């Protein structure tokens, strides 16, 4: 395959992002928004990573299937992703579950979320479909996965992570031969199959699939006619192709995008409060594992027009300061001390307050003399004066959502109940 031909594959592809999931393990963070719409990294939403990967890979046709509490997600997509131009053969479709196939039927599974929009996909006539999950944090060049798909002659190519074998029990796991052809697909196995030549590790599915569009549509039509199917890629479509076609694993390390500062391939499912807090706080490290400052692979998002962050007061105990922290635009740190914290847009931290290990979502107000340690504070929360969190585990557990690792999620309704 010539370099010119190879580079053109992404222009013949459509990325289809499955963004309908609730993400119930994030508890109250997803009471008002779908998991892909949850804020991440100071400015972005989780879905921006999959979308930015597609855009940076050269894909110019994108569809996003939404379902659960989709308003904030749809609004974000309209504001931040409205720059695609039809006259340049570009398209960006937001595809809510809208009972298009049947008056009683919402999206029944991940495969059904694609099948119900088959006519829209076919109207663009993409040669390849790149099916993506909208709720993971990673940087990946899908062009390289497309090339492998074409050169290997696969019916489906599946993005896979190499993980320690016994950590793969919560994933769909690929049993591969020496050529990375998938010979079996096991959902959440108690004893995951190892990788040939590296038996201590297993290949876990990332929920990223590449198909030729025509073949995918045939599969989806067959699946829709099967009354026993649960209409899901992981449970129905992929096992069928593994059994009756050619399924090939694509290793994430081969297409992971890394700057000079990123040592290991970075992929995170921020699906629990602990994982979400940790991935955000990791960004405060001097050299974080995920480089958001890499201009060659930008994370696109909706950028509000905001004034710069501001730090005021310089008295003992009342000094506006931030150490090892990320502070977004329109934040005012007024005599407050931050350590290893991440503040989203428009936060107000008032005098004598102290934040350590705090992930603070947009428009939060921190009252005077508050001391907050290892917290996630939801959008728009008003923290009362003198509130102390993170120093008394029993008290924290009674008032807030306290995770296994001692991270406290704070929402406005929890604050209101304090009286």
UniProtKB/TrEMBL annotation:
UniProt-annotated site: Could play a key role in the communication between the regulatory and the substrate sites, residues: 67, 106
Keywords: ATP-binding, Carbohydrate metabolism, Glycogen biosynthesis, Glycogen metabolism, Nucleotide-binding, Nucleotidyltransferase, Transferase
Alphabetical GO biological process terms: glycogen biosynthetic process
Gene Ontology terms for molecular function: ATP binding; glucose-1-phosphate adenylyltransferase activity
Annotated Nucleotidyl transferase domain residues: 16-284
Pathway assigned to this chain's UniProt record: Glycan biosynthesis; glycogen biosynthesis
Pfam families membership: Hexapep_GlmU, NTP_transferase
Reactions catalysed according to its record: alpha-D-glucose 1-phosphate + ATP + H(+) = ADP-alpha-D-glucose + diphosphate
Top EC class for this record: transferase
Record's keyword annotation contains DNA damage: no
InterPro entries assigned: ADP-Glc_PPase, ADP_Glu_pyroP_CS, GlgC_bac, GlmU/GlgC-like_hexapep, NTP_transferase_dom, Nucleotide-diphossugar_trans, Trimer_LpxA-like_sf
EC number: 2.7.7.27
Record domain Glucose-1-phosphate adenylyltransferase/Bifunctional protein GlmU-like C-terminal hexapeptide: where: 307-410
Residues annotated to bind alpha-D-glucose 1-phosphate: 107, 172, 187-188, 205
Subunit: Homotetramer.
Similarity annotation: Belongs to the bacterial/plant glucose-1-phosphate adenylyltransferase family.
Function text: Involved in the biosynthesis of ADP-glucose, a building block required for the elongation reactions to produce glycogen. Catalyzes the reaction between ATP and alpha-D-glucose 1-phosphate (G1P) to produce pyrophosphate and ADP-Glc.
UniProt-listed PANTHER family: GLUCOSE-1-PHOSPHATE ADENYLYLTRANSFERASE, GLUCOSE-1-PHOSPHATE ADENYLYLTRANSFERASE-RELATED
Record-given protein name: Glucose-1-phosphate adenylyltransferase
Species of the source: Agrobacterium albertimagni AOL15
